[in-house]
């Protein structure tokens, strides 16, 4: 058991509710920063050394909180932003508790996990619990949009870390943690054609929508389920009126890959679609965002430690591979032992029924806290 007193699931849920009821879309820096202000005050008041890095490119700030100690730290990183726009809390997704489930925008992905990390570090400091290593807590503003401003900070802190813990949601009915993930990336494709009257001057036009359709089929053909490679084209746009040959079109492209070699092949194939021919110009912008998160002996050893701690708290902790990326991808590919999916159980990430199994808050937070106390 952790030496730090974590408290009951009821107590944790009561405080977590305030985090959920503070809406934090990735695109609203002021909203994210207001919740970051609250977290900073709690950590500073408990004695953490605080570094706050100003936001840029219209995203919020990044908070780095450190506990005292010598040697390589244990880094724990969570994000405060969500995919949900303002208004869903007052409309279709109010915070509510129904039986063993607590609902609300972002509660599962990943305000519960980020709150658990904050709470564990704050209570370690408040209660003066000794830890084998210092702890560095990162709270970031932009994970849901690819971590464009926080990635450099995450990588900076990971370089000197003994291990990295990511309290993203626990997965599936069994609440699995994550020991590997696919790499993720994306492109924006824009196509220029030539407009013309769709009846009287059809031959003079060059349809950007037709070019987009051909490119879409080529991108779809890159999917290889046996090899673990998937691609998806959405959303798409193009054209102005039914009687005008469309002079412009475009799309977003998502891809997931199991290895850097696969990423190189997919990126090269999509970039090869770029060019100009017969009055059609295709431009492609983007690439690999999160590199694949490999399963390593060091990462598996970290998992076994966590599994042993979880057993003492009364639950099994299976492991899984996930197709979605997280900030753990950045640290794992650097060779730093990384364990992901250490947040709360639940389901419905990015969906209207997003929820956690709130009774699991205390045992899951206790496991996280004991890892922070004991990792050597």
TrEMBL record:
The keyword Hydrolase applies. It comes from the Bacteria. The active site is at residues 81, 143. Residues 180-273 form the Peptidase M20 dimerisation domain. Keywords: Hydrolase, Metal-binding. InterPro entries: Bact_exopeptidase_dim_dom, Pept_M20_glutamate_carboxypep, Peptidase_M20, Peptidase_M20_dimer, Peptidase_M20A. The keyword rRNA processing does not apply. Gene3D superfamilies: 3.30.70.360, Zn peptidases (3.40.630.10). One of its GO terms (molecular function) is metal ion binding. This is M20 family metallopeptidase. It comes from Siccirubricoccus deserti.
């Amino acid at each position: 058991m952790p030496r730090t007193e974590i408290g009951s699931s009821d107590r944790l849920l009561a405080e977590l509710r305030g985090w959920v009821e503070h809406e934090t879309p990735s695109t609203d820096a002021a909203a994210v920063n207001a919740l970051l202000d609250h977290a900073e005050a709690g950590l500073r008041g408990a004695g953490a050394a605080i570094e706050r890095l100003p936001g840029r490119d219209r995203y919020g700030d990044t908070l780095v909180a450190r506990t005292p100690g010598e040697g390589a730290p244990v880094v724990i990183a969570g994000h405060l932003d969500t995919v949900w726009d303002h208004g869903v809390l007052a409309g279709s997704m109010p915070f509510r508790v129904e039986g063993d489930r607590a609902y609300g925008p972002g509660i599962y992905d990943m305000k519960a996990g980020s709150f658990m990390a904050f709470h564990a570090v704050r209570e370690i400091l408040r209660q003066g619990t000794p830890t084998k290593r210092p702890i560095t807590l990162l709270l970031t503003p932009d994970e849901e949009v690819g971590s464009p401003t926080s990635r450099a900070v995450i990588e900076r802190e990971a370089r000197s870390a003994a291990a990295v813990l990511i309290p993203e949601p626990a997965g599936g009915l069994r609440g699995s943690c994550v020991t590997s993930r696919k790499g993720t990336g994306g492109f924006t494709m824009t196509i220029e054609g030539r407009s013309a009257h769709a009846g009287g001057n059809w031959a003079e036009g060059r349809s950007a929508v037709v070019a987009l359709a051909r490119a879409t089929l080529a991108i779809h053909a890159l999917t290889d389920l046996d090899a673990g490679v998937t691609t998806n084209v959405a959303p798409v746009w193009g054209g102005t009126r039914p009687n005008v040959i469309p002079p412009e079109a475009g799309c977003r492209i998502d891809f997931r890959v199991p290895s850097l070699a696969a990423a190189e092949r997919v990126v090269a194939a999509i970039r090869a679609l770029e060019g100009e021919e017969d009055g059609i110009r295709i431009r492609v912008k983007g690439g690999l965002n999160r590199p694949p998160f490999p399963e390593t002996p060091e990462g598996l050893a970290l998992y076994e430690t966590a599994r042993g701690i979880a057993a003492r708290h009364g639950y099994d902790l299976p492991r899984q591979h996930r197709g979605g990326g997280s900030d753990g991808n950045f640290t794992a590919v650097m060779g730093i032992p990384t364990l992901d999916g250490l947040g709360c159980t639940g389901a419905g990430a990015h969906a209207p029924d997003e929820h956690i199994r709130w009774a699991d808050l205390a045992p899951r937070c206790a496991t996280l806290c004991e890892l922070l106390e004991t990792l050597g």
